[in-house]
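Example record

The entry below shows one chain as it appears in the dataset: sequence first, then structure tokens.
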Amino acid sequence: MQRDLLGDIAAWPLDRKCRTVARFWSQQWGAIQLTILREKGEGALADFKFKILNRHQRNHFLSGVDRLAIPRNLPPAVVAGRYHYLSNIIGGLAMEYIEESPKKVWVRYLPPAWSFPGLSICAVPSSAPRRMFAGWHPYNGPSLGTNRLAFVVTKTFQDGDPYDEGYFEEFDRDLAPEERLQFRVVTRSPDFDPSAAPKLDPEQWPADRLSRAFRNFSRGYLHDGVMTSLEMFGLHGAARIVAQAVRLCALQHVLDFTAAFGIAGRSAADLARCFAVLSDLGEEQPTLSTDGPGRYVLRRKPRVFGQDEIADEIWQALFAYQEMAAKVFSARIRATRSAGGSTAYEEWMFEDTPHRLF
């Protein structure tokens, strides 16, 4: 993108760039979950958490074990515990890891809750984290070739505890599928010793790679959130949920991004620049051009989804973010979306209008 449009942002460190666009994506991921809760109810959110974590387990667990350089010949509880500890740290979660024995390894997910920032956690029922654990942790054993590994949940935020906690335990016998996730009250848990926790190899994981992985963590959850919504609610139902979620997300957060980018105006040019910057931070190869007085065209190559991965109705639902952002900016800005010169690209137009639109 034109460097003069980025201004001081062009000189931002890579980590700041990655964290900014990661926040843009993770806010939408959280908003989709809360919209499902509001529109479809507690059971739907719990099922959503199960499905999306199970999708992630299938797609990312074993490949992630290898990328994190965790030897697969270690005890299964150690492999699973190290994976969750290290992968979630990369994603920006505060974590603790305690290797009580080769067959019993604790992991803690500390506050704040990543999926539900701020006060949104107050709306989330306890069924959500329980189904979240059910979607991933009990499947690690079979992925590692054993039926003797269970995950025991000992604490959750929604049950009044100060963190989500549990431990992987390798039993001396094969477990039935329903035994691989257990819930057990533990009155006192072991201490965390940071010096004894696993660490990433700094040569394999230099700072720039960690920053990009942090960004990709958020992008992946937004991607899978939309795909899981399609699986559960169909095209039209998912489009309604996504549109409402991102609409409210823009309402709450777009002015935070403009402030971070040093954009003080409220014209179509200012709004176009805001999204051009976000697109650049997401490495979407944006170009911003004028199409007449007060008309600005942003062309970008989306990174969250492939060109043929979702229907146009979902693309339009995601654009509800930009439509609401235009309304937040001014009653005299129109935002419209069309395909670009190639199906791999999108074009967004932002234009000043002489009269109020609402």
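Notes for this example: The mean pLDDT is 94. The longest strand covers residues 95-101.
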